[in-house]
């Protein structure tokens, strides 16, 4: 195996443990921006005077723009310095957070949020960067660590947004996020090592590079299956949290935004469980681990409606879903990262595009179905999507076993 080197003597450029954790922290902060709105979506809607169904367009457009940005920008990571690209996109995110904090009307707020999605590329460049700089036997563990960084960012976003909005207002949440991003812009050059590797120069036009993303997707059915699974998985994730925020802060339930934030703290279990489950997936195989996680998640989602009318009962399904949900993503990425290094970024591009299209659908449907059918309707929607995840994970595991015979 040809290992990347960035040292004059040509030594293998494996990341140190300190660098791995620094990258996980970076991923956490830059990921958080899209999730501050989850516990405060009702407050933002009231602040701009829009309805529950209409406010869902903000996270939906953010996710669609993120999918478009990944499609158009992430493939550049196969040819240009991941470090320089990350710095550029982090600055763009910082400016978008400033725009959201200062927006005076709903259209400008939605525009800033949409542009934020388009330039949120760093969290997806970093795992591809790291996958080329870890020993193969630690790929699952490091992928899981970076996924835990994503989870931590989401946790911080939800918890801090709920508490800040309850004691100040929702705009203070975005000023807080802007300050964090300013810190990341300063910190990132030290978190990512300088790449002194010989750069691959594009052998074709930018258009050909983008077309190659579709060509590679067509050549790798495992990518298409994994992407569809994660698209459904992420749709469940966005639909559940947006609907949960509307449900808990409704007149029927009567909880404040801080309660939604505190409940989101349950996601902290994933920070500790995901790296361990990543090591377990290294041992039993990504496909088998994904199927097991999908079945456990289905059990948790089935409990959402009967246990969904009190804070304490909700802890049970949330624990189950947050325990195994990220593992479905980790195992999907493991399958892609095991393929040839020179195509990993473009394969993960397709994977993440489908993932965020799923997230956009979940955002739009989660709020619209809640507006139409309440908590019962949203729970039925999530159950249908979870059954799809289990079915596809079972198909992928059986297909792989047949191919191995």
Automatic annotation (TrEMBL):
Residues 19-403 form the Major facilitator superfamily (MFS) profile domain. It comes from the Bacteria. The chain crosses the membrane at residues 21-41, 53-73, 85-103, 109-130, 142-161, 173-192, 231-248, 260-277, 289-308, 314-336, 348-369, 375-394. SUPFAM superfamilies: MFS general substrate transporter. InterPro entries: MFS, MFS_dom, MFS_trans_sf. Pfam families: MFS_1 (PF07690). GO terms for molecular function: transmembrane transporter activity. Gene3D superfamilies: MFS general substrate transporter like domains (1.20.1250.20). Keywords: Membrane, Transmembrane, Transmembrane helix. PANTHER family: MAJOR FACILITATOR SUPERFAMILY (MFS) PROFILE DOMAIN-CONTAINING PROTEIN, TRANSPORTER SCO4007-RELATED. This is Predicted arabinose efflux permease, MFS family.
């Amino acid at each position: 195996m040809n290992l990347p080197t960035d040292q004059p003597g040509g030594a293998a450029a494996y990341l140190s443990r300190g660098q791995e954790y620094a990258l996980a922290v970076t991923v956490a902060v830059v990921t958080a921006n899209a999730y501050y709105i989850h516990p405060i979506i009702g407050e933002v809607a009231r602040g701009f005077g829009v309805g529950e169904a209409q406010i869902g367009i903000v996270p939906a457009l953010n996710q669609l723009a993120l999918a478009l940005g990944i499609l158009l920008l992430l493939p550049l990571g196969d040819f240009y310095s991941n470090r320089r690209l990350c710095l550029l996109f982090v600055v763009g995110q910082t400016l978008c957070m400033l725009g959201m904090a200062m927006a005076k009307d709903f259209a400008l707020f939605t525009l800033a949020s949409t542009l934020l999605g388009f330039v949120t590329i760093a969290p997806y460049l970093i795992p591809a960067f790291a996958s080329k700089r870890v020993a193969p036997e630690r790929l699952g563990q490091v992928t899981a660590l970076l996924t835990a960084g994503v989870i931590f960012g989401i946790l911080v976003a939800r918890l801090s947004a709920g508490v800040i909005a309850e004691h100040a207002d929702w705009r203070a949440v975005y000023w807080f996020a802007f300050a964090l991003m300013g810190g990341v812009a300063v910190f990132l050059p030290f978190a990512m090592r300088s790449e002194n590797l010989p750069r691959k120069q594009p052998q074709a036009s930018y258009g050909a590079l983008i077309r190659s993303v579709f060509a590679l997707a067509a050549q790798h059915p495992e990518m298409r299956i994994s992407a569809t699974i994660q698209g459904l998985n992420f749709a469940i994730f966005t639909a559940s949290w947006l609907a949960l925020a509307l449900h808990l802060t409704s007149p029927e339930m009567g909880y404040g935004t801080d309660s939604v934030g505190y409940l989101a703290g349950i996601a902290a279990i994933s920070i500790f469980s995901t790296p361990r489950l990543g090591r377990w997936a290294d041992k039993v195989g990504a496909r088998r681990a994904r199927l097991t996680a999908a079945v456990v998640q289905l059990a948790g989602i089935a409990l959402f409606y009967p246990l969904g009318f009190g804070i304490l009962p909700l802890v049970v399904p949330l624990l189950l879903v947050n325990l195994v949900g990220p593992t479905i993503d980790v195992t999907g990425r493991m399958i892609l990262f095991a393929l040839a290094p020179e195509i990993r970024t473009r394969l993960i591009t397709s994977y993440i595009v489908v993932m965020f299209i799923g997230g956009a659908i979940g955002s739009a449907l989660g709020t619209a179905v809640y507006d139409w059918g309440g908590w019962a309707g949203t729970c039925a929607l999530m159950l249908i999507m979870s059954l799809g995840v289990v079915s596809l994970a079972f198909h992928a595991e059986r297909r792989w076993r047949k191919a191995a015979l």
